[in-house]
Specification:
single chain; 742 residues
Length: 742
C-alpha cells in the first residue's frame, strides 16, 4: 500500500477496505533485539550525506552509519561501518569532516533513534533528544521520552501542503506522552520471560514504532543496535522504606498497538482476534539488594484488560452521553473470540479467568445485551476445551453491588483476588523461604519449593470501556498480589495488607495514576469512578469529581476523538514502506456464509516462551557483553556522581508520608493507621466465586445473597488454605444461566 493513498484530498484518513479494522497478521516480521545497543548518537550532515555516530555508555564501542542523500533506492542509501572504532579513531573522523568543509553538526547527544518514515517523497528520521529515567530493574534503566525531533534526510526538501498534512498527522501522536524504552532491558516482555535469558525478538504487539523499525531493518537494511523499541502505556516505580531497607514496587502497563484507538471508534474485536484497549499490566516487587538479576529476589504478577471480544459498536452521531450498544455481527461459532482467547493461552497459559464487571440488570438494556452474548460465546468455546483447562467466567454486576449497602464491593474483590491468585500463582525468582515453609505448617521438608515459581494463567478484567470499574478491580487484585509478593520475599509474616497501611495506599495511588493515564489515552479524560467511589465511606467530593470527569470525557469523545483516531491509525498502520509490505495481508469483513464448525479453536494451552540466544542463558544482564552491559549505564564509572544525583534517591517513598520522623521512628508501612488489629481468619475452603470443576455447574441461585456476603466478608486468607483448585466457569448472582457441560 502506497503511503500516498493514506489521506484523501481533504487530508483525512481514507477508510480502505479492512484497513479501518486495524487487522494484522500473526506472522508479522519479527523485530530482532540487538546483542549490543548504542545509547548515544551524534549526527552530522553535508549536502550529499548524513553521518550518524553511535556509541555505548562506556564510550568504548563506536560505529558509523552513513546515509546517501542522493540515492533514490531505499535499500542502497545506508551503509554501516565496522563496529570496533575507538574514541581516538572517531575523533579523527570528525576532525576530517570538519576540515573537509561542508559538514555541520545537526544534533549531538541523541538518546535513541525511533525509526524512518516516508510521507509523499523523501525520508525522515525520528530521534529522541531528551529522556528521563522512570524505573530501575536489575540495574537496567527504563526511560520516558521527553523530547523528539523529526529530521529530514533529503537535503532542503520542498514541502507541499499535502506533505505538511502528513507530517502534522504523524506528529499528532505525541511521543513525549507516556512512551517508554530501555537500551538494555526488554520492556516489551514480562519479567518472567526476561529472566529466562536474552530473548531474540521483541514482542512486536506492544512496539508502537513497529513499522518505523521495519522500515529501518528491511527497507534500509541496518542493524537493530541503531534503534529503540517504544512501548506506550504507563510505567512508575515507588519504594517502601522498612527500617532503612527499601522494597521497590514497579508498575508497567503495555498497550497493544494492534486495533489501537479511542473509546467510541475502537470497540470489540477485529478479524484477527485482537481487542480494543488491550493493556497488559505487570506488577514487580523486589528488594534489589544486589544490582543484577542473577542473585536478586524478584516477584511479578501480570493482569490483562481488554474490550469484550465480539463485533459491537456504539453510534456517536447523536448527543447521548451513553449511546446504545449494537452487536454488528452475531457469529454462532464465535471464531474471533476463539482467536482472542487462543492468543491469551499462548501468552499466559491456563487458566484464563474472565472477570466481567458489566451491568446485568438495567431498565434500558444496554450492557446486559452484550453480557448475554459474551456468556453464550464462552459457553460455546468452553465445551471444546479439555477438562481442567476451561475458561473461568465470573460475571459480577459491580455497579449494582455498589448501590447495595449490604455489600462491601472492595471486600468481595479481595476474596475474588485471593481465589484468582491461588489459581494462577505469581512469578518468584527464588526458592521458597524456609521461614515461609514453616509458617505454612508443612510437615515434610520435601514439600518446600526449591525452584522458582512461575505464573500460569491470567485474570482478564473488563467492563464496557475497560477503564473505571476495570481499574478499580485491578487495583484491588494488585493490592492482594502485593501482600503475597511481600510475603514471598520475607518482608511480612502474613500475606495480607489492610487498606489503611502505607503500602496499600501507595499501590492504590499507583493504580490510580495508571488508570488515569490509560483513561486519557483511550477515553479522553481521567477516571470517572475510582476505588474511592466504591468505598462505603465515599463523600460528596468524590461524586462531584466523578461528574466533572464524565463531562470531560463526553466533550473529548464528541469533538476530539476523530482526529485522535486518525493520528493513531496513521502512526501505527500507515507508515511502513511499500517495499516492506510483502508479508502483510489485507483485511476483510467476516463472512458468515459457509463457515466451518469451530471446534479445535485453540493452538496451545501452555504459554509459549520467546526464543533466547542459544549460548546465552542464566542472568540476563551478563548476556549483553562487557562492552555494553548494564554496569556502565547504572554505575557510570567514568563519571563523577553523588548519591543525591542517583535516580533511586528521587523515588517516591513511603517515608515521605511521615516527613517529621527519622528512619528509626518511621512507622512500618504495613501497620494499620487506624490502630485496628485484623485477626488472621481463614477463608472457607469451598470457594463461591471461582468454583472447582466438580462443582462448577451448581445452580448459584440456591445460595442466598446473605450467605455469599457472609462468606466473602472474611478478607484475610492464610496460605495454608489456599490450595490450587480445578478449572471451570461459573456465573454469579443467578443473573445468567451457568455454563453447561455439552
Amino acid at each position: 500500500m502506497s503511503s500516498e493513498s493514506v489521506l484523501d484530498t481533504d487530508g483525512k484518513l481514507a477508510a480502505e477496505d479492512g484497513a479501518a479494522d486495524g487487522a494484522f497478521t500473526v506472522d508479522e516480521t519479527p523485530l530482532h533485539r540487538p546483542p549490543v545497543s548504542f545509547t548515544q548518537f551524534d549526527i552530522y550532515e553535508n549536502r550529499t550525506q548524513l553521518c550518524i555516530i553511535g556509541y555505548n555508555d562506556a564510550e568504548s564501542l563506536y560505529q558509523i552509519l552513513r546515509i546517501d542523500r542522493t540515492q533514490d533506492d531505499v535499500s542502497k542509501i545506508a551503509s554501516e561501518g565496522p563496529q570496533h572504532h575507538t574514541r581516538e579513531e572517531i575523533s579523527k573522523v570528525v576532525q576530517q569532516m570538519q576540515s573537509a568543509g561542508g559538514w555541520r553538526s545537526v544534533v549531538t547527544g541523541v538518546c535513541g533513534l525511533v525509526g524512518f518514515v516516508r510521507f509523499t517523497k523523501g525520508l525522515y528520521l525520528s530521534v529522541i533528544t531528551r529522556q528521563r529515567p522512570v524505573a530501575l530493574l536489575g540495574g537496567h534503566y527504563i526511560y520516558h521520552v521527553e523530547d523528539t525531533r523529526l529530521l529530514s534526510i533529503t537535503y532542503r526538501p520542498e514541502r507541499t501542503d499535502r506533505e505538511e498534512r502528513f507530517i502534522n498527522t504523524f506528529k499528532s501522536v505525541d511521543l513525549t506522552k507516556n512512551f517508554y524504552y530501555s537500551h538494555t532491558y526488554d520492556v516489551t516482555r514480562t519479567l518472567q520471560q526476561n529472566m529466562r535469558g536474552r530473548s531474540l525478538y521483541y514482542q512486536s504487539m506492544v512496539v508502537w514504532n513497529y513499522q518505523l523499525l521495519v522500515n529501518a531493518a528491511q527497507g534500509l537494511g541496518i542493524g537493530a543496535q541503531w534503534t529503540v523499541a517504544l512501548v506506550h502505556g504507563y510505567i512508575d516505580q515507588s519504594r517502601l522504606s522498612v527500617l532503612g531497607r527499601d522494597v521497590f514496587i514497579t508498575l508497567i502497563a503495555r498497550r497493544s498497538r494492534i486495533f489501537a484507538g479511542v473509546r467510541f471508534l475502537k470497540r470489540g474485536v477485529n478479524d484477527a482476534g485482537y481487542v480494543a484497549n488491550d493493556v497488559e499490566t505487570e506488577q514487580i516487587v523486589a528488594t534489589m539488594e544486589v544490582t543484577g538479576f542473577e542473585n536478586g529476589a524478584y516477584t511479578a504478577y501480570v493482569q490483562h484488560r481488554g474490550s469484550i471480544p465480539l463485533f459491537w459498536s456504539q453510534e456517536t452521531a447523536g448527543i447521548a452521553p451513553k449511546p446504545p450498544i449494537e452487536i454488528n455481527v452475531r457469529d454462532p461459532y464465535f471464531v474471533e473470540a476463539g482467536r482472542h482467547f487462543s492468543g491469551l493461552f499462548a501468552r499466559y497459559g491456563a487458566p484464563i479467568i474472565v472477570l466481567s464487571l458489566i451491568k446485568t440488570k438495567e431498565r434500558a438494556r444496554r450492557e446486559s445485551v452484550l453480557g448475554e452474548e459474551f456468556s453464550e460465546g464462552l459457553r460455546y468455546l468452553n465445551q471444546f476445551l479439555p477438562s481442567g483447562q476451561k475458561i473461568r467466567y465470573l460475571a459480577w454486576d459491580m455497579s449494582r453491588a455498589k448501590k447495595n449497602r449490604q455489600e462491601d464491593v472492595l471486600a468481595i474483590l479481595e476474596v475474588i483476588a485471593e481465589e484468582a491468585i491461588a489459581l494462577t500463582g505469581f512469578f518468584h525468582s527464588r526458592p521458597e523461604l524456609y521461614a515461609n515453609h514453616l509458617r505454612r505448617g508443612s510437615k515434610h521438608h520435601d514439600m518446600r519449593r526449591t525452584e522458582p515459581m512461575r505464573q500460569s494463567g491470567v485474570v482478564r478484567s473488563n467492563c464496557i470501556d475497560c477503564l473505571d470499574r476495570t481499574n478499580a478491580a485491578q487495583s484491588i487484585i494488585g493490592k492482594v498480589a502485593l501482600a503475597h509478593q511481600l510475603f514471598a520475599l520475607g518482608i511480612i509474616a502474613h500475606p495480607h495488607l489492610s487498606f489503611a497501611t502505607d503500602a496499600a495506599m501507595i499501590i492504590e495511588e499507583m493504580y490510580h495514576d495508571l488508570g488515569n493515564t490509560i483513561a486519557l489515552q483511550y477515553g479522553g479524560s481521567h477516571l470517572v469512578n475510582t476505588v474511592q467511589t466504591y468505598r462505603r465511606n465515599t463523600n460528596w467530593r468524590s461524586h462531584s469529581r466523578d461528574i466533572v470527569e464524565a463531562l470531560r470525557r463526553y466533550y473529548s469523545n464528541s469533538l476530539l476523538d476523530v482526529e485522535r483516531q486518525e493520528a493513531i491509525t496513521y502512526f501505527v498502520e500507515r507508515t511502513i514502506f511499500p517495499e516492506c509490505t510483502h508479508r502483510r495481508a489485507t483485511s476483510s469483513r467476516p463472512s458468515q456464509v459457509g463457515k466451518p464448525v469451530f471446534r479445535k479453536w485453540w493452538s496451545t494451552l501452555t504459554a509459549l516462551e520467546p526464543p533466547v540466544a542459544q549460548d546465552e542463558t542464566g542472568d540476563m544482564p551478563d548476556t549483553r557483553g562487557d562492552q555494553d552491559s548494564y554496569w556502565n549505564e547504572y554505575y557510570e564509572p567514568h563519571k563523577y556522581t553523588s548519591f543525591d544525583s542517583l535516580f533511586v534517591s528521587s523515588l517516591n517513598s513511603s517515608a515521605s508520608l511521615h516527613p517529621h520522623n527519622n528512619v528509626q521512628n518511621t512507622p512500618s508501612p504495613f501497620t494499620d493507621r487506624t490502630g485496628q488489629r485484623h485477626p488472621q481468619r481463614p477463608m472457607p475452603q469451598d470457594n463461591k466465586w471461582l468454583k472447582s470443576e466438580t462443582e462448577e455447574y451448581t445452580d448459584p441461585t440456591a445460595v442466598s445473597r446473605e450467605e455469599i456476603y457472609s462468606r466473602v466478608s472474611a478478607r484475610v486468607a492464610t496460605p495454608q488454605v489456599l490450595h490450587p483448585i480445578g478449572i471451570g466457569g461459573w456465573v454469579t448472582d443467578g443473573i445468567s444461566e451457568p455454563l453447561q457441560e455439552p
